[in-house]
Amino acid sequence: MITLYDITGKPPIKTGSPNVWKTRYVLNYKKLPHKTIFVEFPDIEDELKKAGIPPSGKKPDGVTPHYTCPSIIDDATGAVVSDSYKIAEYLDKAYPDTPKLFPPGTEALQAAFYDHFPQVLAPLWPIVLPRVPRVVMDERSAEHYIRMYSERFGMPLAQMEPVGEERVAAWAKVKAGFGQLDGWLSKSSGPFIMGDTVTFVDFVVASTLHSLRTLFGENSEEWRDIDGWNDGRWAGILKNLKEYASVEI
Amino acid sequence: MITLYDITGKPPIKTGSPNVWKTRYVLNYKKLPHKTIFVEFPDIEDELKKAGIPPSGKKPDGVTPHYTCPSIIDDATGAVVSDSYKIAEYLDKAYPDTPKLFPPGTEALQAAFYDHFPQVLAPLWPIVLPRVPRVVMDERSAEHYIRMYSERFGMPLAQMEPVGEERVAAWAKVKAGFGQLDGWLSKSSGPFIMGDTVTFVDFVVASTLHSLRTLFGENSEEWRDIDGWNDGRWAGILKNLKEYASVEI
């Protein structure tokens, strides 16, 4: 049994973290039995340490260890792995009879895509980040989240969110980012990025979309906008991968 | 017979344009007979118009048609194609029995890589661009080039080139860019980006490397630096693709 560590979402939202969604999609795609442990945002470091999970990297200061979700514990092998990319690589190796996330030959191009993808949708973050504590978190977690990001950006998190004309301009940049992504994906001859084969990068894109839909709400103006762009490609991706989106508790 | 339009390089350099190198590699890889017509930099628009070749896009003003090398004329089909990416797509389609540059399923990931690659090596351009007219061009072409780029950047081109401590810092950024690229490529299990299969993106990377080696000179401090980074990966790429680097006149 694999244990997946996720960040608690305030009801009715179970789980909003795009990074954890990558691992959830991946575990379901490989049909690997797993259960989820939900941890409140301010408790991640303590809970992961207690479970014997190492940090996934350093905080922005370059020194302090950073404990993050997703992390997994695999009882079958004793492995403990943090970071959605490393988890995906681990699962391909540890379970060679399950469908490959990185078919041989595609590793380098997927790595490049993985690095580039967040840059293309970077205009989203000033709109999305201030929304996260309001929509996904309870009061204690929200306070912790707001304090952390306000310190990191040197301004109150809420001030990051563009309003009025600035928001219109920011949203146009978001649309342009999706347009660039669509330019690449439209080169594919199949429903997935690599044609008829599902690969890790499909789950990378789908996880962001899934979290955006949760965060804005399916009937929000924002999600209806996104749904209307690029011939319905974005909601289509979620539909194509829906069978791998179940939450195992 | 395919005619390839290239930009004249001042002797002993025949050809320095990284964009044209992509097409040269591709034609040699597909073993498609071709000849090269060299055009002086200020004459590109006139010569291409005269040959019936359309612009490849717009100049930075978004309005003026932009005539560029590489462009090809394919006598066998009557096709006239500009832009190295479009030429590669055209050749895959027009000559289906030659080795594919875009194996089915890889199109979208290659498109994403193609867009990302110049960003990763962006720190090179302030060092490289002012060097181009000095090393590769005769006096008339150099004057035209310097005027064009000085207008575009709103400062004398020579002033773009970092010197002293600034150059040391800029070169460290170049090294970091190569390091990021190496991080992706090291995921590949073969000599090429997609393992044992050559694809278009290999020629994209090799063309930049080939031009850098020409521009700096094989025995320059800069090329020796690059050659020493990332376990010799960069000179190794040129060596692996050397059989496709002949210049057909």
Textual characterization of the structure:
Chains A, B: Residues 7-99 form the GST N-terminal domain. The structure is a homodimer of 249-residue chains. The first copy, chain A, is an alpha+beta fold and 249 residues long. Helix content of chain A is 51%, strand content 10%. Chain A binds chain B through residues 104-113, 115-116, 119, 180, 183-190, 193-197, 201, and chain B through 104-113, 115-116, 119, 180, 183-190, 193-197, 201.
Keywords:
homodimer; 12 helices; alpha+beta; GST N-terminal domain-containing protein (chains A, B); 249 residues; 51% helix; 6 strands; globular; two-stranded antiparallel ribbon; four-stranded mixed β-sheet; Thioredoxin-like_sf (chains A, B)
Major beta sheet summary of chain A: 4 strands, mixed
As a percent range, the share of strand residues of chain A is 5-15%
Write down how many β-strands of chain A occur, each being a DSSP E stretch of 2 or more residues: 6
Neighbour order of strands in the largest sheet of chain A = 2-1-5-6
Shape of chain A: globular
Q: Ranges of chain A with pLDDT <50 over ≥5 residues?
A: none
Number of helices of chain A: 12
A few lines on this structure:
The structure is a homodimer of 249-residue chains. With 249 residues, the first copy, chain A, is α+β, with helices and mostly antiparallel strands.
Topology:
2 copies of one chain form a homodimer.
Chain A: E1 2-7, H1 18-29, E2 34-39, H2 44-50, E3 57-58, E4 65-66, E5 71-74, E6 79-82, H3 84-94, H4 107-120, H5 125-128, H6 131-136, H7 139-153, H8 157-160, H9 164-185, H10 200-216, H11 221-228, H12 233-240
Parallel strand pairs in A: 1-2
Antiparallel strand pairs in A: 1-5, 3-4, 5-6
Helix pairs in contact in A: 1-3, 1-10, 4-10, 10-12
